[in-house]
Amino acid sequence: MGLVPTITPILDHDAELAKAEAGVAQFAASRNDRWYPKFHIASDGGWINDPNGLCYYRGRWHVFYQLHPFDTQWGQCHWGHVSSADMVTWRREPIAMAPSLEEEKDGVYSGSAAIGDDGTLRFYYTGHRNLADAIDPKRSLEVQLLATAQDDDAIRLTKHGMVIDCPRAEVDSDFRDPKVWKTGGIWYMTFGVSSAHKRGQMWLYTSQDMIEWSFERVLFEHPDPDVFMLECPDFFPVTGPDGEEKWVIGFSAMGSKPHGFMNRNASNAGYMIGSWTPGEVFRPESEFRLWDWGHNFYAPQSFTAPDGRQIMYGWMSPFAGSAPMQEDGWCGQLTLPREITLGADGDLHTSPVKEVSALRAGSADLGAIELQANEEHIIVDDAEAVEVELTLNLARSTAERMGLKIHATNDDSYTYVAYDDQLGRVVIDRQAAACGDRGYRAAPLSDEELSKGVIDLRLFIDRGSIEVYVNGGRQVLSSYSYPSEGPRAIKLTSESGVAHTDALKIHQLRSIGLE
């Protein structure tokens, strides 16, 4: 295989991988599992962030992720790895990459996977070097690198070095996170850039052989001058129910400012829907929309499955300061895998992949329930890992807020997932949370949804987190929730009025096998 020229590592990669494995093992040996997820992907120990290299290869699903194996805070990035035959039960694989080349000596940063025409699984990723000095303490150099899988399980990767250098005069340090795909016989690569004028952009390169890459154009520049970098970019086509194809551009906007309910996190991951023709710029036809309205969603990556589904994982970022789980020997988890579809409403819907239902280990159907004003009803005495399906009847309810208190413990702490009738939104409210950051987040409901008079909620409650899917994934909220010691109840609640549910089901969920 004619790849890039031979490279000279500055460190022995196998030795660096062994050090990283030992670092993770040290954390894992004393890890506190009070909030450690049962059905979300997380590292044994240490810090994780962005999902990377998502793919289906020779009979297994693969998820790689950013990993700092020597601390529970962000640091020198490696690539962790898990795989699965069914996207239900997962196997922890050896750490895939550690910094060993000059171009990546300060971090093996994020990237994506692509299977070439020859069947070779390739990983394009960013190498990071710190070039800080007294004049510019944040200065760095980032370039795009290539690695390939050497076995059917993608356990051992071979690095082939740099494929795209950074044009330093045109870039303000940030130049990372490649996404690769093929359209019309040509391979394309886009990645995020902070331009010399500190504008958030996505650049486009092309290749015939996946080795030699040429700059084509700036694919997209964010219209907000406050946005100085577009991290973890994504770009893919979707087809709506009417058969019309659209293109989706996704990115995590650094520098976006809060405005009302929008952009409440430190940085905010979202998308725009539009059109693209090879050889041209992306033309947005929608405004910037959030992938997820929760407190802790960032850096998503998607890939196309063999059956055509567009599947996405996100990182549940702690964002606000020190996260309580950092004291427990680990920090960070990924979301459930979500299928992206274009709905008849012209917007994207993201719902858990169908495989997730195989985690159900027992179910209870509680039917319809009516609560009087300011009444609470315990529906689960102690919930460690459960899925809840809930239909709220707005037409028959007068409550100002109604929903579920999650992780409700004996010290009166909880996290509240509710429909707020004054806002016309679904909220996650952490004002009564026992640990960690508080505040609330609110996902919108369209006039069409509100006019139907019912809201379907699907909640996935893990030991330390909640994912809420609204109306089949038209909106989603993902947030950490750290309960106190003792039983973790779920309470159906009404505030200042009657609350009526048309349906309520509880599913106990089993482990995915990574505990």
Write the layout of secondary structure elements.
Elements: H1 13-29, E1 46-57, E2 60-68, E3 78-84, E4 90-92, E5 108-115, E6 121-130, E7 140-149, E8 157-164, E9 171-183, E10 186-195, E11 200-207, E12 214-221, E13 229-239, E14 245-254, E15 268-275, E16 283-284, E17 289-290, E18 298-304, E19 310-316, E20 330-331, E21 333-334, E22 338-342, E23 348-352, E24 360-365, E25 369-371, E26 376-380, E27 386-393, E28 401-408, E29 415-420, E30 425-429, E31 440-444, H2 447-451, E32 454-461, E33 465-470, E34 475-480, E35 489-495, E36 499-509
Parallel strand pairs: 1-20
Antiparallel strand pairs: 1-2, 2-3, 3-4, 5-6, 6-7, 7-8, 9-10, 10-11, 11-12, 13-14, 14-15, 15-16, 15-17, 18-19, 19-21, 19-22, 22-23, 24-36, 25-36, 26-35, 27-32, 27-36, 28-29, 28-35, 29-30, 30-31, 32-33, 33-34
Textual characterization of the structure:
Belongs to the glycosyl hydrolase 32 family. Residues 40-352 form the Glycosyl hydrolase family 32 N-terminal domain. GO terms for molecular function: beta-fructofuranosidase activity. 4% of the residues lie in helices and 49% in strands. With 515 residues, the chain is mainly beta. It folds into two domains: 13-352, Tachylectin-2, Chain A (5 Propeller), CATH 2.115.10; 360-509, Sandwich (Jelly Rolls), CATH 2.60.120.560.
Quick structural summary:
By secondary structure, the protein is mostly beta strands. It contains two helices and 36 strands.
